[in-house]
Amino acid sequence: METAALMELELNPGIWLMLFFAPILASFPIAFIWPKRQDSFARKLSILSVLGLFVSFLITVFILFRVEEGRYVYPWLPSIGINFVFVVDYLSKYMGALTGFIAFTIGVYGLEYMKDDYRLGWYWFFFNLFTASMLLVVYSDNLLMLLIGWEGLGIASWGLIGHWFRDDDELSYVGVIDRKMGPLKMFWSPSTGGWRAISTIRVGDMPMFLAVAAIFALTGTLDISRIPWAELFENIGMAGTVILLFAFLMGPFTKSAQLPFSEWLMTAMTGPTTVSALLHSATMVAAGTYLFMRVSWYIKPWEIQLAGVEIIYILVLSLGLISSLYGASVALASRERKVLLAASTMSSLGLMFASSAASFWIGEFAIVVAFWYLITHAFAKATLFLVAGHIIHETHDRFLGGDREVFSKMKLTALVTLFATITLAGIPPLTAYWVKSAMDEVMEKLVHEVNILPFAFLVTISVIYSAFLAKFFALNFWKGRHVHLHLHGGGVMKTAYTAMVSMLLVLLAVIYLGIDHAAEEFIKAGTVEVSFMVGILVLVAYVAGFIKPEHENFIGKILYDRVYVMLLNDYLIPKIGWAIAWIVDIFNRFLDFTAHTFIPALFGGISVSIRAVQSGSLERYAKIVVSFVLAILFIVSIVGWF
Amino acid sequence: MYAVFIPAIAIIMAPFIRGRAAAYFSALTFVVSFFAILYAFVTKAEYMVDLFTAFEPVGRIYLLGDTVSHAFGFTIALVSAMVALYSYPYMKHRFEEMELNPSTEFKKYWFLYNLYAASMLWLVYAGNLILLYVFLEISLIASFLLIYYYGYGNRVWVGLLYFVWTNIAGVLALVGFLMIGFENKTLALDSIASVSMLAWLFVFIGMVVKLPGLGPHVWLPWAHAEAPTPVSALLSPLTVGLAAYILLRIYLIDQSFIEVYRSEIFLYGILTSVVAGFAVFKQKDHKRLLAYSTVSQMGYILIAFTLGTAGIVGVIIQYISHAFGKSILFMSAGAIIAVYHGLRDLDRMSGMHEQIPTIANAALIGFMNLSGILAIGMIGEFFILKGLVDTFGLSLDAILLVVFVFIISGLYSFYTMKRIYYGRVRDYEKAKVNRLLDTPLYIIGAISILFILPPLATWFVDAVISFLGGV
């Protein structure tokens, strides 16, 4: 599976245009009509938007099966050698189809979930923009073009997280309303959620933007597959490499919510559940890890044994594992349906980063493992979010809760959840087990290259991960407190998440039947003793989590408050910022006073004639100015003469 | 080339047209200019039209149309056209508020407005520094009168304040120009051989007052906040940035000054941008807030000037992107003022998206322009960052400073969005917004977004790069 240099191929640009613009254009009618009329006709236009998503989905499938691997180049800024370069390779073709499918399925789900919403024009426009942006990120080989998609993701996530901008619905908040811990308010409204998202992301995007510009300045090209990475790193030396790569990775770290940038992801749950589902599976947060995989794929760090590169890959490995452990622990202690899932996503993202970073020692296979984990996780997590959305819809309650009545009245939902959780946990012989086994193998190999910590972390994380998934199932369908069900409709939603979860079976089939070349390796890894032991451990954790889903203790309380990481977002940085703003304000006032009050008053005191200037007599003023100009002209002319 | 003089028709004719038609007519002349200039820009046409030769040291007076003129020119034409449309409902509201007679006041208004906008447009086509100065003064006087007649608050005081400050700027620049003239025996742009440091210093300080940089920036929040909003929507996006144009012209002749004081100017730009950026958070008045953001954005221009050729591309794009973004934002602020009878206190706003969704969405596009998201500003930032690496290499301190500046713009943009349009909905009545109060905003917004895509982006970058001879 050596990646040969990609050929430049021809493809009708109309296909790419359709892929990105079909969803955006299809959302225009509702986006433009909605502010004017919110009647049943306008609501029907939602279907058109979903149709746009469907077109995109079809094209991604077409690319998956019918378009050759290669680079497709169309002119953009040819005078500086920056073009629209689409790449179809192992990563992008699967990722594209995954995005297309998930976005379309969630779009269909949204038709029912959002049908009574007050802001549909906004919703569909940003939902579709979100999808199109992600697809652009997925298929981009050119970094500047990728940044367009990247920024699109940022702005669309802001729009969607803050979708319920009125902040008037308790159901859309995160945290217990009016709860406080010291100076911290432990609840967040949608408008705050949106602000936290975009403010965190900007902090990462700008360094990344700089790194992209730097790569262009230093190499003259921005095509990921063409940049002479090894040469570049050698030229800029160790410090340069570390600065450049770290700046670049600030983008993925913030987008994929690694520590300490995780808080925005937790409060991103203020958006509609469809948004959380899309955001957490195939778009946005996945974009960060995906980009890291894509870049590593072509940097080929395993061939460049430079100190600067090694430092960065060790950093990513450690940060990924620590964030993953943090995310899993927070999820374990969470009491809110969506926040639990959000924290679990963070945990998974950490594993993806860690596994891709292992490629420095292991080679390309580590990236393939991370990528497969991304795919498995995407389907499972999207399913769980859609389920969570449905239960929230039926119970009007965003906290974990539900006894056997829920199970018996929502059987399909419960079974889907059960299947998704045990599959994602990595219980043999289901989908994630094989992928996780391969990951075990990767981390085990690191024992010789780095040390035993990565492997130990991975096993611990897998166990906790399994436990909170069991908790999620148990507290929603079996052992939770009693909740009132308001069952009505839900047919479309059920269809959507059933379709979503069935994709896990498709993946399983791909692995069993060896359709993809990676599958063979996965099966091999899964039959190793160590992997099996881990699988059993995970199963035990699941059972334990199911039997005793709740356990109050001190550590749990701290984890429930997410170890107070929000101190950074909500207290320290704003305090520093406001302090600077305060100083700046005083400075401005002082200058203003000096220039506009003090000095004029001084002159006024000395001379009556100056005061006359301020009388407002236009004519007189004009005369004075003209004579001023003339005087200066005169002086300068004299000076110039000599 | 002569297309830039089409708005002259509007200066003369528009005052005699009644009602809405005057707005359409004025806009039409600027739109025609816009397309003509855009065409000239795309085809990389260069013009030189001799007018006459004056005595030494003034020298040959001619009109100069090259890529830089066109780039500034089409921006000015487009924004002026859109603001002209917007002026009609806004000024009607303003005249009613001031209890003036609209039909007579509009006569004055259209004359001054068109003169103001057209003089800026002509300024960028002036081939002689004296001619340029003349246009600068015309635009200054016209805008001063507009503030003086129709401004808010203590408009007389603010008008004078504006006049004094910009005159200081103008006169300092004039001194610089004249020194250049005496040194070179001419003020024609194509014949000036070199610019002495002292002359550069005068022009630079003058333009820093106008731009404005940190320190002299105190005049700007007054003028831009208290001017009638259509005038703010020209002042802030177009006029102050013309200082960048003048500096650019001098830079293209002689770069010595910038090269010698590179790091000082760079740091000054950073400081300007950071201080003004933080000041944005503290503002309570909608238009003052936008004015501080202008100062912050002009800091970008100072920074970009020090970053070599890529930086110069950045200067040009930054001017355009800021012009588009800020004109949208000032018009959105004005729309709220017009609809809710002078509402501009941020403490009395929140959740405004509920009442005026179209304005809120337009403001979003405006802020996206400022923070360089999915709009032409993005390409500008790209060139500035490239220039940064070209000039300073991967030096950590320079990188951190510029990145910090860019982050702040993004933060205050979305913080302001949240403050005004998000959150608890207040009980203002849902209003029907006049179409002329929101459509022009969307036209500018659409063009600003189209500028990152082919064919506009392709043409644009190609024209600028081939003019500057590569980056």
Describe this structure in words.
The complex is a heterodimer of chains A (642) and B (471). Chain A has 26 helices and 5 strands. The mean pLDDT of chain A is 91. Chain A has 642 residues and is mainly alpha-helical. Chain B has a domain at 266-471. Chain B has helices spanning 6-13, 20-42, 67-97, 102-123, 129-150, 155-184, 197-210, 219-226, 229-253, 256-260, 262-282, 286-305, 308-339, 357-371, 376-392, 396-421, 435-450, 456-468, and strands at residues 47-53, 60-65. The longest helix of chain B has 32 residues, at 308-339. The radius of gyration of chain B is 21 Å and the shape is globular. The model of chain B has no long low-confidence stretch (mean pLDDT 93). At the A-B interface, strand 2, helix 6, helix 7, helix 8 and helix 24 of A face helix 6, helix 11, helix 14, helix 15 and helix 16 of B.
List keywords for this structure.
heterodimer; A: mainly alpha; 2 domains; 3-stranded mixed β-sheet; two-stranded antiparallel sheet; 26 helices; globular; B: 471 residues
Sheet with the most strands: spatial strand order of chain B: 1-2
Largest interface: A-B, 75 and 72 residues
In percent terms, what proportion of residues of chain A is strand?
under 5%
Between the first and last Cα atoms of chain B, what is the distance in angstroms? 27 Å
Brief account:
The complex is a heterodimer of chains A (642) and B (471). Chain A has 642 residues and is mostly helical. Chain A has helices at residues 13-33, 40-44, 46-66, 90-113, 120-139, 143-161, 190-219, 229-255, 263-267, 273-281, 285-299, 307-333, 337-357, 359-362, 364-395, 404-409, 411-425, 431-449, 453-477, 491-512, 517-526, 529-547, 554-560, 566-606, 608-613, 618-641, and strands at 8-9, 70-77, 82-88, 174-181, 184-188.
